[in-house]
Amino acid sequence: MFSLAWKSVRQRPARFLATLLAALLGAGVTMTFNSLHDTAAGAGVDDTSAETLTTAASVVGGYGTLLVFFAIASTLTVNVRQRGEEIALLRSTGATPAQIKRMVVGESVVVATAGMLLAVGPAMLGGRALFGMFQDSGQVGQDVDFAFGPIALSSGFAITLLAAVGAAFLAVRRATRALAGGRAPRGRLRVLGGAAALVLGAGSVAATFSMDATEPALMAAPAYGAILLAVGFAVFSPHLLRLLLGWFARPLARLGGAGAYLAVHNMRQRAAQLAGVLMPLILFTGVAAATLSMQTVENDALAASGLTKSVDDKNLETLNLTVVGIIAAFACLMLINSLYAATSYRTQEFGRQRLAGSTPRQVLATVGFEGLFLTLTGTFFGTLAGLAGTLAFTSVRTDTALPDQVYALWLGVLAVGAAATLLTCLGTTRRTLRTPAVAAVAVAG
Amino acid sequence: MFGKRNRGARAGRAGHPEALRLVKVSKRYGSGAGGGPQDNSVTALDEVTLSLPAGSFTAIMGPSGSGKSTLLQCAAGLDRPDSGLVMVDGEEMTGGSEAELTKFRRSRIGFVFQQYNLLPTLTVAQNTTLPLRLAGRRIDRARTEQVLAQVGLGDRLGHRPDQLSGGQRQRVAIARALVTEPRVVFADEPTGALDMRSAREVLRLLQQAVRVHGRTVVMVTHDPVAASYADSVVFLADGRLAGQLQSPSVDAVAERLAHLGDLAQGGARSPYPAAPGHPAPGTATDHTIRLGA
């Protein structure tokens, strides 16, 4: 089965692009940060420098692995689902489920290996740049030399490979279950997890108020609170979407003509599936907006108190921004990937719509309305989560209102989320519209 | 906007005596179209000329690859012929953009497909009124219910397609095709996925649309039983017209079809003489068929 996996990757490399990107990003981030371990282990590194480097390297370790895992799993799930026909064909020609599993895992390993190899170069540059920032801020001694060695390489390879294999197992299990006709489990655990995330998030945000304004870890509680709230909203996103649709569906459909009418009905029926798009969007907005604005508030507070930034503060800022950047990049990748998959999956539906008398423009209007509504829903709940953390932090840290830059930052984050959502769904739809309607309807889907 | 709407409404009532007219319609598929030395193209339609009067029910039959689906798609504006003229209700279908063709079809043409092509997220009533909504026309609830009652689905307005049987879905598709009061309804293998009883109901509904409501129906089928419901059958072989039958019986259609199949398999590229002045057996002169009226 491995030779089949190799052939299938070689014949159609394009469809593995998303998985490759996820692996590349994952391996790159892991190796970049772990090269700090290599550097710290070098000969003649003083204790403070070594400690700073080790702490920074460990920050990304835990959840970085999780992110890589989820990103690869998300792209592979889409990949396997789109090849339902091919997999059904393999089954009917006598492939056992175990053989299909081996094929998908084999493909995943091939693609992940390619991603890791490609990531080595950028990771060396990225690691050097990160190291440079620490050296410039004075946290690391000038006589320390950057090293990119066995720890970076082995951890990058191990984490990415592990994530790729695990994600492939997860994806193929989901797909074969769907093929066997079984419904996805209702997910009581999921509801419990979502509720727990909301409660813990609210608690974490509330805990901010019991802390001292000058405490160095003050930002941690509201930041984690915001992330947890965003996760909770993401879990309940189908229900939230239905709720908003209940309020706004009628006026929207009246306002937007046939396109909006179809969009409203499509979203009502597909609220559960749209969670795959809303989840990364809520996370992206919540995490990015909360961290960026809290950092702005912190900078302002420091400037107002007349203190210059200490090395620790600078370090914290660097790490904050790096972490947000990584989470945002992964969330964006997952958003674009799942949205692309969900839209290209609808070729047949768009064909039917055109045969019923819809012009290509009306199909685009339908998809555009759906994208707009999803963007508004996702960014609204992301903003809610982010705002909870930011307001709590601001009220404890300073007595002033939110600084003006926060609004600009927020708009920027919303714009990125909206652009990713709308460009992906409209661009994908445009591509499917090139197929004549009669042929689009005939496509198995 | 209003002008267009009015014109659409008029087209639904008054009408040209000739519902559909094809003049020398040709269509080739594949690379090298144009007749060069490396011509790999396949002629799907070869100068087909056809005229169907308003209020007729015509079946188009032929062996696989005879071009019957291409004929239907070219006539219905779903595909663009390489050359030739298509006129629906006396108006020429000009090969503009997809949007222009769609707007042309909206008021003149209705479709029924083998795979129903209903939208899964809409209810029966919403699917039926969708063409009106897309065209920006007023939706008359009573009229919708009346049309759905005619096809026997008056009690299924709120159901979704996945809650219906194949026969019921096809009846929704027929209601959707009729609700815009089109000049011509094109049906592409409408009974291809149905059991015999549902097929009979669907064919009776199409027949009723012609006899009672004066619509024009053009149906592509490979089933002689389905074809026997039509007023006349037009046969196609190798992209050319190959005869017709008036008031067809199942046996007569089957026999003619078997004969066509033999000829097509016999290796002859064109079973009927191409030279003008030599009408093929059963074919009106110069591949032109004019039916009754």
Summarize the structure in words.
The complex is a heterodimer of chains A (445) and B (293). With 445 residues, chain A is mainly alpha-helical. Chain A folds into 2 domains: 1-184, no CATH class; 186-445, no CATH class. Helix content of chain A is 83%, strand content 0%. In chain A, helix 1 (2-11) packs across helix 5 (97-136), helix 2 (17-40) packs across helix 5 and helix 8 packs antiparallel against helix 10 (271-304). Chain A is globular, with a radius of gyration of 24 Å. The model of chain A has no long low-confidence stretch (mean pLDDT 85). Chain B starts with a helix and ends with a strand. Chain B is built from 9 helices and 11 strands. Chain B is of the alpha/beta class. Chain B has one domain (2-31, 42-290): P-loop containing nucleotide triphosphate hydrolases (Rossmann fold, 3-Layer(aba) Sandwich), CATH 3.40.50.300. Chain B has helices at 2-13, 68-75, 98-108, 124-134, 141-150, 166-178, 196-211, 224-227, 250-265; strands at 18-29, 42-53, 57-61, 83-88, 91-92, 109-113, 184-188, 216-220, 232-237, 240-246, 288-290. The chains are: A mainly alpha (445), B alpha/beta (293). At the A-B interface, helix 9, helix 12, helix 13 and helix 15 of A face helix 3 and helix 4 of B.
Main CATH class of chain B: Alpha Beta
Of all chain pairs, the largest interface belongs to: A-B, 26 and 29 residues
- Discrete helix count of chain A: 15
What is the helix content of chain A? over 70%
Structural class of chain A: mainly alpha
- The domain tally of chain A reads 2
Poorly predicted runs of 5 or more residues of chain A? none
